[in-house]
Structure formats: structure tokens, C-alpha cells
Amino acid sequence: MNKQGAFESAANTESGSRVFVYEVVGLRQNEETDQTNYKIRSSGSVFIRVPYNRMNQEMRRITRLGGKIVSIQPASALQQFNGTSSFGTANIGGNGQATPVNAPAEEQLKNKDQKGNTMTQAKGKKDAHADVPVNTYRPNAPFIGKCISNEPLVKEGGIGIVQHIKFDLSGSNLKYIEGQSIGIIPPGVDKNGKPEKLRLYSIASTRHGDDVDDKTVSLCVRQLEYKHPETGETVYGVCSTHLCFLEPGADVKITGPVGKEMLLPSDPDAKVIMMATGTGIAPMRAYLWRMFKDAERAANPDYQFKGFAWLIFGVPTTPNILYKEELEEMQAKYPDNFRLTYAISREQQNPQGGRMYIQDRVAQYADELWQLIKEEKTHTYICGLRGMEDGIDAALTAAAAKEGVTWSTYQKEIKKAGRWHVETY
Fold first, then answer.
1. Which ranges of the sequence are coiled-coil (predicted)?
2. Which residues are marked as active site?
């Protein structure tokens, strides 16, 4: 995965124009709530429009007033599905906040599960990743590797160019582990006449490499292509184009490895949730190979994965499902340990009739994901377009709210505990 720019469809960043509609039941009818001008249907539901940056505050206020959030949907999606006049809303003031209620700030809600037990996070130290290699090779002294192979990943009829590129590390001291990245320095000079700077790419292979011989490293690279904002001219990324058309045998300048944010837990009984778009699949492929590939399992007698892994993968078309055969082969072989879910935006529809993006899949399975996330053995990894984060947070906010839990607070706690891992661009 190239971390230097967001080069996939901007449509994938949609999240209801960052305004969401809460469907709430059970709000107390008293002098305070009478001031809110909520239009209450005969069903007892209240629909409240809330800007994204006020979601958690509004959830806490609703809970304080005795309400229960039964659903959260992007405002635009609800209007498309229900019609613009079929649901009432609270007014939003000029400051972008939901209709205010004159009430003192509430105390922080205690996080409790459905049985009333206080929910706690893993307080033990993070998984020990002893001797994680970092910056073995630096920009001023890179390792000169060689391209072994450069294979297309997008099938006929797909969108764009994405390549799986394998490099020979023979003669180097470059060691890495799953979830790390390497830097690539393209040849030539930039527009200022200075040598090109390195670009970081997530590693798509395990520490043993695709050949399980500890001599290679692989990348998943999409050619960056965009329109110049002033001239309208098509511009191609310097490094991604260099890599996508690299010939076997060609030299390449490699730096790193870097990164400790996306490392896998060492516990073979862990539960691993993976959410990826496009080339964000790169580290997920490394994880899955380590968990399920026969040769990898043979090379790692001390790590025999017996837990549960769930990959939710967002792509525009079926031909753009990168590593499709590998993924489906692993799912078929380990059906009890590996769950595979696609979100194919240009071929599948969400419940509102729009395109099916990864955040829509997360919303579909939000309650199930939330139950998994609460388990102390669960680690969640998100990699790809930054735009998917809002929708993921909105879905998990709704799921957590059903148990009176503030998602943003809970998310900070599991991140501190080393169980929430994000690398987006």
C-alpha cells in the first residue's frame, strides 16, 4: 500500500455529508424535552439530525434523558430511502450543533455491558514484539535490491493498475515482520532538481517472504493517477509508476523497515478484525499468510493460529479484488477460523439503494463486530482510505450506544491497550 496519497475513488469517502440521523425511543417528556421541538411520531420514535463532530455528545445527552438509540443513518441516505418529508428532525443551530438542551454537563457514563457489569480493557502491557527491526537501511545508505517479479493483480475489466512486486534481499541485513513498511527511493530528481525522496509502502509478505526462504519482500502497489487541478492534465505518481512498470532484474533502492503500529499480537488464540480498501489489503495479506498458509505454518512451529480472523474488504469491482484466489482458498480451508466479506461498491447496493462501501458493511454487521471488539483477545486493523473511518465510527457508535457505552471513549481505551490499529491515507 502506498501511503503518500489518496488515489482511489473519492466516492468511497461518503458518509452522509457528515450529518447523521439518530432514531431514538424512550425520551422523557418533561419541561426540558418539551423545549426541543422534536416531532414525535405515533410510534414513539424521535429522529434527530446530528453533525458528525457532535455524535458522541448527543448520544450521552440522549442517554441522560432516558432515551435509547435504535439506529444511526447518514442523513442523505435516509432522505433518499424515506423521502424528504417522512421523518421529523430536531433543528440544528447556526453553530452546527444539534438542538441544544439547557441542562448541566453530565458525569461521564460508566461503561457497562448488558448484564450491568463494568466493562474494563486489557490492562496488561501490549503484546511483546521483542527485537522489532527498525531503520536497518536509511535514505542516505539504502539497500540496493533487485526486482524478482512484477505481476498484475487487477483482472480484465477492472479499474486501474495494481501490481504485486517481489524484491530480492539476498546479501542484505533487512529483516522485517508483518505489519511493517519499507521505503522505496525512485530514480531521478524532483522538480527542484533534488534527488527524489522515499515513499513508504506497506509490506504484503510475511517475515519469511513469498518463497518462505527469508530472502524476499513483496509490495502491493497501485499506480497513482489523478487530474491536475489547474490544467486538467492526467498526472501519474513518480514512484508508483516506476514500481508498477519495473522489469525483473532491475535495481531498486530500499530503506527501512519502519512501523510498529500495525503489528500482529503474538497470541495464536487472538481474534483479528481487518478492514481494508484497495491496496490497504497489503498488511492484511501478510497477516493471513502467517495465520493460514501451509508453508508459513510449517516455518513457524511456535505460532499456530487457532483464533478467528474476519476480513472486510472494499473494492470498486470484482476484478479489483486483489489476491482473490488466495483469500478464497484460505476461507475454504479454514471456514471456522477465517471469515471473508466483500464490499464491491459498483456492483452491490447498500440498504438505501446506494453503492456498497466498506462502511456500509460495517454498519450491516455493527452489532456482531461490537461484541467481538469488546473481547480482550480482539485486535482491529484498519488500512486504506481515511474516508472510511467516519462511517466505521458511526456504525460502532450506534452499536455501543445500545449498551450505554460511548464509542469514542471506548476506542481510546482499546487503542491505549494496543488493540486498535489504524493506518489510513
1. none
2. 201-202, 383, 423, 425
Residue 74 pLDDT exceeds 90: no
Asked if residues 199 and 184 have their Cβ atoms less than 8 Å apart, the reply is yes
The pLDDT score that the predictor gives to residue 28 is: 57
CATH number of 271-424: 3.40.50.80
Topology of 130-258 in CATH? Answer: Elongation Factor Tu (Ef-tu); domain 3 (2.40.30)
Residues of the chain with CATH 2.40.30.10: 130-258
Q: Evaluate whether 355 touches 349 at the Cβ level (below 8 Å).
A: yes
Dihedral class, residue 66 (left if φ above 0, else alpha if ψ from -120 to 50, else beta): left
The pLDDT of 250-256, averaged and rounded, is 97
pTM tops 0.85, yes or no: no
Q: Looking at this protein, which amino acid is placed at residue 78?
A: L
Instruction: Give CATH 3.40.50.80 domain extents, the chain.
Output: 271-424
**What's the pLDDT band for 403 if we cut at 50, 70, 90?**
very high
CB count in 10 Å sphere of residue 285:
26
User: CA-CA distance, 81 to 62, in Å (whole number)?
Assistant: 25
Residue type, 176: Y
Chain segment 288-314, per-residue pLDDT in tens? 999 999 999 999 999 999 999 999 999
Give yes or no for a cis peptide into 100 (omega within 30° of 0): no
Find out whether 373 and 380 touch, Cβ atoms under 8 Å.
yes
The DSSP element (H or E) to which 199 belongs, if any, is: strand 199-202
